[in-house]
Design goal:
Helix 4 packs antiparallel against helix 5. The chain starts with 6 loop residues before the first helix and ends with a helix. 69% of the residues lie in helices and 0% in strands. With 122 residues, it is mainly α. Residues 12-53 form the Inner membrane component domain. The chain crosses the membrane at residues 12-30, 36-55, 92-111. It comes from Halarchaeum nitratireducens. Keywords: Membrane, Transmembrane, Transmembrane helix. This is Inner membrane component domain-containing protein.
């Protein structure tokens, strides 16, 4: 697993890039998810949201004993819940991000967007 970048680097990234790039990435991902052909691309883009927001490196699930839900369960969840819940979740997070007080909540929400979308743990 790659080493995390410094807090200063991640904060500067957020201030100059993350705050505007993340909503753009989420909207492109959601448009991809609205089509059958684009779903794999959309899911991959959603999984990049924490990195786009604050340069957070994905954690190694094997290192802490975590595991993913099965692909079949994740697919059913995505079709029934994930596609629309992630859209609402991401837009609520974007709303919180434009306020000083809501910024920590927005960052927390954006980091959990892959899980809301497809039960994918980063």
């Amino acid at each position: 697993m790659a080493e995390q970048r410094s807090l200063l680097t991640r904060a500067l990234w957020f201030v100059f890039v993350g705050w505007w790039a993340t909503p753009a990435l989420v909207n492109v991902a959601w448009l991809c998810n609205a089509t059958i052909v684009g779903i794999p691309i959309g899911i991959a883009l959603i999984n990049l949201v924490p990195t786009a927001l604050t340069l957070q490196e994905p954690r190694d699930l094997d290192a802490d004993g975590g595991s993913q839900h099965g692909l079949a369960l994740r697919a059913v969840y995505f079709v029934l819940v994930g596609w629309w819940a992630s859209f609402l979740w991401a837009n609520l997070a974007a709303f919180f991000a434009v306020t000083i007080v809501g910024l920590p909540v927005a960052i927390w929400m954006f980091h959990r967007l892959p899980y809301v979308t497809s039960l994918y743990r980063l």
